[in-house]
Fold this sequence. Notes:
The chain has 253 residues and is α+β, with helices and mostly antiparallel strands. It has helices at 4-17, 30-46, 61-67, 117-122, 145-150, 196-209; strands spanning 51-57, 73-78, 82-83, 88-90, 98-107, 124-134, 155-160, 174-179, 182-188, 219-221, 229-230, 236-241, 245-252. The termini are far apart. The structure holds 2-oxoadipic acid (OOG) and magnesium ion.
Amino acid sequence: MADILGIAQRLDNAVLTATATPQLEQSLTVEEAYQVQAASLARRYERGEKRIGLKMGFTSRAKMAQMGVDEMIWGRLTDAMLIEDGGSIAFSRYVHPRVEPEIAFILKDSLPGKITPAAALAAVGGVAPALEIIDSRYKDFKFSWTDVVADNSSSSSFVVGAWSDPATDISNLGMIMEIDGVERQIGSSAAILGHPLRSLVAAARLAAAAGEPLQAGAIVMAGGATAAEALAPGQHVRLVVQNLGRVDFRVNP
Ligand code: OOG
Ligand code: MG
């Protein structure tokens, strides 16, 4: 039996102290990994953070190839992780942060677990360009599938641009992520499971299976469309998504 609470505390301390922790000594089962994630989030809720959504991970080939993992994961998002559009993060509060371009959804209705893409779309209140700042708490950003699940799927911070009409066709939108004005990753929203809406359908299924169905107002991050880029102090990161507009943030020391 894995020490669920002990590992949750270790990962949570790694977040709080911005210090890497070694890879887990013992491999977890899928159930144990999600139990550790829930227990580490419980510590955040005790500190006053509020759950505001869900992130999907490994929904594109580019991300799976970069990290050597080939199955979807999900993590919980809290209000403390949300960075204002145009705002900044403090590099010193992260272990070794990376950034990746995503599409975000906001729900206007709750979603049950088993839904069609059309039903999922009917519950969407808006779609937006988004940047996810991931920060593995594991040394050298190296992990197994269950290790990263336990670590809240590397969730760290996220920035969401202006919401667009959910009727916008998001199936194949060009996405350009720039760092200091230089194009660093170029991709398409189609890289996310062929259509980002499929990621929302999967999010609804996984959230309901965990006993926490998606509620109205929830934000869902669909997953990185390209590989992630390492961040450094002083950088300015900007994502432009065709038809959806831009979102950006700065990295302070
Ligand atoms: C895990 C998180 C994956 C995504 O969008 O695919 C993820 C990681 O790469 O550290 O957020
Ligand atoms: Mg991501």
